Every structure is written in structure tokens, then in C-alpha cells.
Fold these 2 entries.
Entry 1:
Amino acid sequence: MKKIGITCYPTVGGSGVIATELGMLLAEQGHQIHFITSSIPFRLDRIYPQIYYHEVELNHYPVFQYPPYDLALATKMAEVIDEEKLDILHVHYAMPHAICAILARDIAERDVKIVTTLHGTDITVLGIDHTFKKMIKHGIEQSDAVTAVSNDLVEQTYEMLDVQKDISVIYNFVNEKEYVKKELPHLREQYGIKADERVIIHISNFRKVKRVEDVIYTFEKIQHHCKSKLLLVGDGPEYTSIVQLVKDLGINDKVLFLGKQKNISDLLSISDLKLLLSEKESFGLVLLEAMACEVPCIGTRAGGIPEVIEHGETGYLVNIGDTEQAAAYAIELLTNSERLVEFSNRSLTHAMEHFHSKKIVRQYLQLYNNLGNE
Ligand code: GMT
């Protein structure tokens, strides 16, 4: 049995989901898990006797202009390492979490091993602000082991940071118990979706990199050829301009803005096709969630997306911004029921064969064991 500390951003986001689900699955296998985060991870919605939660508290000191969150986190990590006798501290993101973990290891008396998982956000930060380059590089190089969620992210990390460190690819996974197709005909009716209409879904945090406007332009083309509705799930900075675009295109009666939702698998269960047309995406966990619910996906040739979608088998790939091609592929699938069923079946098979949680958790455990800390 290992004692493992986990730090992530506990909010709704792929990295937080992966960190939490991994913690829960490791706990089910008898390991002791200590989440060290600013709030309870949102997926941690039931009691696990093997899981502990250590809150990072923020004090507002009159002498500091900003509350020092990173230092509070490092202090809490050091305390948990010693008090709980952690073997491993697994952090998600090099910046700031690996940096905090390194500081905590220096402060603590115990020789904890640091595992850092890269989700792409460090590269995004670098794209905006190069002053952090050395800091991120340091976080990666001083970790005992580093993983990334796709081969593309490994390549990008080497290219942008020139790091001297082995980075292993460990793909993302989903909780198969939760992400499974359900029969929910009433839900379709409740949303006013007619029996002869196809349902297209997009789920994101509406950041600019997600190019939600391309989803709208693609749908606008699709709905001329195929009776359909578009479900938009999530919220974020681009939300208002997307609402305006939908109005300007005169398709507001066909687009349902659902905002942030919890039971994503229910929404996927009433969907026929998923669109993810981002310009940056280290993996695209929402694709895997869709595939596990038997929903084929159309995605861009960006980041790790081509490692998740098999072009022409489980979905299609298009160049960034090519909404003509995305719409053409979507129409081809949505108007051919036999082909759609084939793609749906293959999506599920592909998700289970390549990204099954059992396989992925085994890879993380193997990595922990190789660190030689009993
Ligand atoms: O995509 C986001 O904006 C959220 C971000 C996160 O940190 O949770 O997602 C990143 O990590 C996910 C889990 O590994 C990946 O599936 C997403 O592709 C990745 N996002 C980007 O690379 C933009």
C-alpha cells in the first residue's frame, strides 16, 4: 500500500477530473490518498475511507498585497508529507504545483518522490508569458518522474522548454461506470428534440482556444442538410459572443445553451455526434467521454486530438478552421444511419481498448513502483 498525495486544480476541468478519478481508483485498490487542494475536488462526491482531504487555507495578511497561495500550498504539502508519511506526491501541472512540491520536499524531513503530470497548460502559459520558462523547466527537471497526456504534448514540451528529462506518455481515461450510454428518450423530449432530429453536442469551457465559433459555423451548414439540434454545454469567456453569433445566423431555435452541467453522460447519451474544433488541445478528455458513450467525434488536427480520434474509423479529423470539411463529414455520418452505428460501435471499442481506466491506472502504478519508494 502506498501513501499518495495529489494536488490539482479541483474545479471543473480535464486535469482536475483525471487527478480525482485516479485518486478514487487508487483508493479502491487499497492505496491511501491525500488530496491537498484549495477545495474538495468536485468529482469527489462520496465517502471513501481511504481518501483524506487537506485544505490549503488562504490568509489575507495586511502586509502582503496578494495572498501567497503557492507558499500556503507548499507549506501544507510539507506538513502532509511528514505527518501522513507520504511516499509519493503526484501533482498536476508543472507550474505552480511541481514548483510547490519541490519546495515542500526541501522543507519536509521525509524523502517523498514527486510525480508531475503535464496537461498542456504549462505550454499555454509559456505561449503567453515567456518569463516563466525557467521555472516550468525547473519544475519538470526536478520531479522524480514526469508524465504527459499525449505524445504531441511530450514533443511540444521538448521543443519549447529544451528539458533534459524523460517524459512518459500516460493517456487520459474515463470512469467507465459513469460514462456509459443510457436509454433516455424522455430527456430528448424534455429538450424539445423531435424523433427525426439528430443531436450534435459540444462541451468546453468556452475559451478562445476552443474555437466555439467554428462549431457554430459547422452546425449552421449541417442543419441545412439534416434536421438537427446543437447542444452547447459549458460556460466561459466566449459565451456572450457565441450567443450573439447564433442570433446573427438566425439559428437560435436550433441551438440549446445548457451552461455548466454535471451529468454529462446523460447529455452524451442523447447525442449522435460530438464536435471539438479547438486550435490547442493536449488530449481532449471530452472526446473520450463521448466515445465511451458511443458518440463518434469530429475534431481538429491539433495537439493530441489525432491520438484520440481514428480518422475514418471512430470519427473524422479536419484542419483547424475548416468548417466546410467538418460539416461535410458530419452530414455524411448523420444522414447514413448504418455508417453512424458503425462509427458509434468502433468509438466504444477504441475507448475501451486504448484508454481503459484499468490499463491507465496500471501504468501510473508501474511508474510509482519504479521510483523505488516503499
Ligand atoms: O482545456 C482546458 O481548458 C482545461 C485543461 C485542464 O487543465 O484541465 O485541459 C487540459 O487537460 C486535459 C486533461 O489532460 C486535456 O484533456 C485537455 O486537452 C487540456 N487542454 C488543453 O490542452 C487546451
Entry 2:
Amino acid sequence: MPARKIEGIRLAKVIKAEIALEVARRVADGKHPPGLAAVLVGENPASQVYVRNKRKACEEAGLNSWLHHLPADTTQEELLKLVHTLNQDPKVNGILVQLPLPKHIDEETILRAVTPLKDVDSFHPENVGLLMTGHPRFMPCTPFGVLQMLKRSDIETAGKRVVILGRSNIVGKPLALMMMQKPSDANPHAGDATVTVAHRGTKHLKEICQQAEILIAAIGVPNFVTAQMVQPGAVVIDVGINSVNGKLCGDVDPEVGEVAAALSPVPGGVGPMTIAMLLQNTLKAATIHQT
Ligand code: GUN
């Protein structure tokens, strides 16, 4: 039987509608709508699409959004100056610096310059530390989206064997933390799962993946996960966004749909959830510093 499709697009719409309702309530109370400032440096076509989609989602949910599109030859000092201005602007609740940045700019320096209270990506070391210790201020958008996607699809994570393929700072590492942590009042979305993190250098990768009840692919290699790697009846989440001959494809081979019980599609799976969680974080940021 083909796998059930985990409908990220539909779930993201539900979350965005919840956010829109909350934003409308805040505005009716005389507050400013939450505002997101997106910073884009250069002309990376994929980044331009991501930022456009993020801003469109903001507008649909009633959030303010501003785009600061800087030329590719912007200096690190110029970018730092913009970040400092946005840090001070009371109408800006969230700051998103779209990655990757041009090579002559040190990403780490820029990400550390964003005030942690507006760091809706949760990339600042202070927010990473809070997440690590189980007191997240903001949950990073893609891992948060994966957890919400599972929860809202009634897929239990507690006690499950979860294998995460990929160890990036944006997805693999924070997702492993969030998935393994014990839920608490400070950390209600934690997964309570037993987590293995694997990557391209992992020995016996196929056997490890076969043990997963929930397999999450964030390795950045087109169609890396094949049907032979998946336990029949497993849930498979595809975080991959790859371009092959101009066509978008994930990290999971479509043949996995014949083995898995449930599978998130690319496009239309984790991508829209990531954007919904960015809005959620921006709303949260607005409640941290009321305007
Ligand atoms: N580039 C790829 N993914 C992301 C993300 O989640 N946030 C930002 N700011 N840049 C990215």
C-alpha cells in the first residue's frame, strides 16, 4: 500500500490561520502587527525565492515584513550596520538574515550581531544554548516544522527510534536535541524520542536507517534514501531541497513511498512548515518585546 502523504502545505495553512487570528487580536488591542525584517545579500536565485515566500506568508497572516536587499559586494561592515539598525528598530520584532551570505562575509559574525531577542531563526549562540539546555526562546524553524508536522499528523514521537540523516547547524543538530529532549513547561514541543544522528561518514548506514521508526533525511543529496534503507511501516520525513536538472527534488527516492507508512513530499512538505514556524517565532518575538 502506498505511503500516506504528510501534507505540509495543508498543515502550514492551518498554523498560518491560527497565527493570523492571533495577529488580528493583537491589532484589535491596539498593538502593532508583528514585523519581520528580511535581509538578503546578493542574487542567489534560491534565496530570492525563499525570501519572497517568507514575506508573502507574513503578508497573508497580517504581519509586517520588510526586505533589505543588498548588492553582492556589500561589505561586512555595511551589513553589520544594517543589523544594528534593525536591532534598535522597535517595529522590527524578527530579523532574518538569509543564508548563505557571500564568501567575503563571515556568517558567524553576522549571526552573532543579531540581538537574540529578535533572532527568529534561533541561530545566535545564546539561543542555541537555551535550546541545548531545554529552555528554548525560539525553536529553529525547520526542526520546529518537522516536530509540528508529526504532531499535527498524529504521529507519536515519544519513545520512538528516530534516525536523523544530517548534522547541520540549521537542521540535523537542533532537530536531534529537540527530538530527544523531555517535554516540560519550558519545552512543550520536545519529542521524547531515542535519537541517532548519522551522516555520509557513518558506517553501516543502511542498517542504522533500517532501525528507524521515524527516519528524517536532511543530508542534502538528491534521492539519497532508497527503499532498501527503510523499515516497512516507517514514517519518513524529507527535509531535502535539491535541484536536479532544474527540477526540485528531496533527499528521499520516490520509491520509498512503496515501503513507508507515511512520507512527507518535496515540494509541499517541510518547506511550507518552515515558513509557518518562522511566522510563529516572529509572533513570539513580538510578545517578548511588546510594541
Ligand atoms: N538558508 C537556508 N535555510 C535557512 C534558514 O532556515 N534561515 C535562513 N536565514 N537562511 C537559510
